[in-house]
């Protein structure tokens, strides 16, 4: 597909997304609201995106004002939707949940709208991150040339519908993403970067190639069966734990935006019990069980690549 076709598809999908979000806004606004609870988090100011987060103060809003904040949040896709002092690199987050009473036909219509929106979000992410063929550091310019001021993470994030939940509780997750990898997988990844022939600021093309070549040599010196892990820290994020009494099942969802709970009138489902999101304080976190981790040696810092050391 040539560049002009790709740009046309990008704009077409985004226009369709805006229309879909507006239609869902209208659909949800017309439904009987049973309960709503959202939790505003402090804005992240420009220049503070990478500072460690030790405390987060939460401000709760309930009822119709919470619903209105949530419906606005789903459509906050551009930088100009927020204050000039707020970082455009940090994601906007508004955890919470909206609970609506629905008939069978209303539920089907809302599910169809949400599915359509999520499909468009997935297609946009694929166009930008895969079909463009651009490395991550060059995507910003590509996106902002054609959709100026777009906050891509807000655009990618899908909506989460819930059907007849028994309770919705909130909390914080502060973990690492850990993935086991093989030496050959890492070598293939490094070799691909080396032969891409690109420069990654602040390095020149020659400096970048030299650095990758050095990383390749270090990984090649490892035994073929070396136990390697990608261990990447993830900033603390709000989560929701959903309990379904009938199925005796709990499901955990990331919760950067309000979940949408549908309570079917035909099933006589009770209003779900809603919890609170309390302030985050890193010093007060207690682990119920924290197994002893095997010691790791950091090999390639930019990839968060570690070697597991056998005791």
From TrEMBL:
Q: Does the keyword Metal-binding apply?
A: no
Note the InterPro entries from the entry.
Answer: DNA_replication_term_site-bd (IPR008865), Tus_dom1 (IPR036381), Tus_sf (IPR036384)
Principal subcellular localisation of the protein: cytoplasm
Q: Where in the cell is it found?
A: Cytoplasm
Tell me yes or no: is Cytoplasm among this UniProt entry's keywords: yes
Keywords assigned: Cytoplasm, DNA replication, DNA-binding
Q: Which SUPFAM superfamilies match?
A: Replication terminator protein (Tus)
State the Gene3D superfamilies in the record.
Answer: 3.30.54.10, Replication terminator Tus, domain 1 superfamily/Replication terminator Tus
Coiled coil regions in record: none
Output the superkingdom of the source species. Answer: Bacteria
- Hey, which family's this protein in? Belongs to the Tus family.
**What's this chain's function?**
Trans-acting protein required for termination of DNA replication. Binds to DNA replication terminator sequences (terA to terF) to prevent the passage of replication forks. The termination efficiency will be affected by the affinity of this protein for the terminator sequence.
In Swiss-Prot or TrEMBL terms, this protein is called: DNA replication terminus site-binding protein
Tell me the name of the encoding gene. tus
